[in-house]
Request: fold
Amino acid sequence: MAIRIALRVSLSGPGCMPPAASKDRLPISVVVPTLNVMPMLPEHVAGMRDWLDLVEEVVVVDSESTDGTREYLEQHIDQGQLRFFSRPRGLYQAWNYGIDQVRAPYTYISTVGDTISREGLQHLHAVAAGLDAGVVISPPRFIDEAGRPIATPVWPIHRLLRLFSADQPRLLERWAAFGLGLTTMPQAILGSSASNLYRSDCLKRSHFPLEFGMAGDTAWGVANALRVPVAMTGRVISDFRFHEKSYNVAPFPIDDMQERLESLAGDALDEALAGDARLRSAPETGLLQAMLEQRRAARLHRIELSAIRRKAPPWYLRSAAWRALAQRNRARREYRRYALQLLARSCGRTRAWSALRNMKR
Reply:
């Protein structure tokens, strides 16, 4: 049975409107979600002091901390900036509640342990304002729990930068942003939200979805790539820390994640096409639809093959297994062929092929 995920967006009304900057400060609200984060909080607040005078407010959403988190924040952040809210536990529930409280035109999500420089915030705002972007994404540095640099994992943002040779910030075509989101699922083209800046009205119009475990960032990018202008910058201005979570991650794994994301992507594409005649007539639209169709086919044939492999006699003696294997591989080839055609429209065939060689299928 197909899964239908409701999108909390309105495509019939106006899009996200670029806000104007205020005179003295950057028009940024900072959302800080917390849950028993005292071990990392002093260092995090020390980093925030580098740019607190730049932002309009700090919105803390605390999920029933019992380790002194609230008291520390109230003591070390100017009460004129700090707005504190207590909410039941929930990862993206806390993010979304904080987003609904912000007053400034832009929102930065400051997850404890992940830091950004003063120049970084200024750069993200300059890019967002200059390109009228709904979100600006950037690559972080990677550090361990003790703050030591570690080897850089390859995230979608790194592939994006190589794909487009982005020496300067640039706005992605919306079909390219959506198509790239498809090729990187379940990884998020957003990367770490603590390396990004969002327009507040875009987040208020479309919350981080709750049906995707810890992949709410991925789901938000898929749901909004066709309607929220996405800009990227190659400047490294933030740190992403790998550390033990202060909450139980057991409830977050989703067995049917791929199916949910594909369903969400299909819904997002259908809604965008229904409200945009120009998109309906664009040649890229047919490629996006074909990519989705072949991705679904590859997943279904993979499930069929896995079911056969669990049965006796050995799967390789069953003709149905070889048929399912051939159909899966054919769907994968077709998917990559359509993805190559799509991305080549933005960056040329050679770069597109290089980017797709190691993508998740």
